[in-house]
Design brief:
Layout: H1 4-11, H2 15-24, H3 37-46, H4 89-111, H5 118-151, H6 155-173
Helix pairs in contact: 1-2, 5-6
Length: 181
């Protein structure tokens, strides 16, 4: 067992860095305030950013046991989920990078116009449906005279029948709801 300052000297860092690591939960501290160097070193290595570690000097050999195992596989990355407890810093960083890559892919798809905003698509469908409805409502008045002349009956009768049938058909079409999921 070592004091905070003794462990900091052995580790080659300031005692403030050790205190911050204890406060953040990166290394354990015994109830009496001392530090078990074996536990603390293992915890420090597992939960520290590899990019911020000092480069090993020529005197120091890498501190990996001969029977070192690879870290457990990463869970599926999700931007909406916090990392599970006990996840190493490297695993958390990898999950974060995966989420950033997925977000970037979506942005690229939007820029390439492969994706559209849901609200924009809904507005466009509504506008197109309204234009089609208006065209159908005006159609009986345009063709009723031609049909009446060909059949030899009164225009108002043909127009009334066409309008009734077109409205019935438009009522059926109004039941269709677009689903953009």
């Amino acid at each position: 067992m070592m004091s905070v300052r003794a462990y900091a000297r052995q580790r080659g860092v300031s005692h403030v860095a050790v205190l911050k690591a204890i406060q953040s939960g990166r290394i354990p501290q015994e109830p009496d305030g001392t530090i078990d160097p074996a536990k603390a070193n293992a915890s420090w290595e597992a939960q520290s950013d590899p990019a911020k570690r000092p480069a090993p000097s020529a005197k120091q050999a890498p501190k990996q046991p001969a029977n070192a195992q690879s870290p457990p596989p990463l869970p599926a990355a999700s931007a909406n989920q916090p990392p599970p407890p006990g996840m190493s810093f490297a695993q958390a960083r990898t999950a974060h990078e995966i989420a950033k890559a997925q977000r970037a892919r979506i942005q690229v798809q939007r820029l390439k116009s492969e994706m559209v905003e849901r609200a924009s698509a809904m507005n466009l469908v509504f506008k197109l449906a309204r234009q089609e409805r208006d065209a159908w409502i005006n159609w009986p008045a345009r063709v009723a005279a031609l049909m009446a002349a060909q059949m030899g009956i009164e225009v108002s009768v043909v127009q009334k029948i066409l309008e009734t049938q077109v409205r019935a058909h438009l009522d059926e079409l109004s039941e269709i709801r677009p689903d953009f999921r």
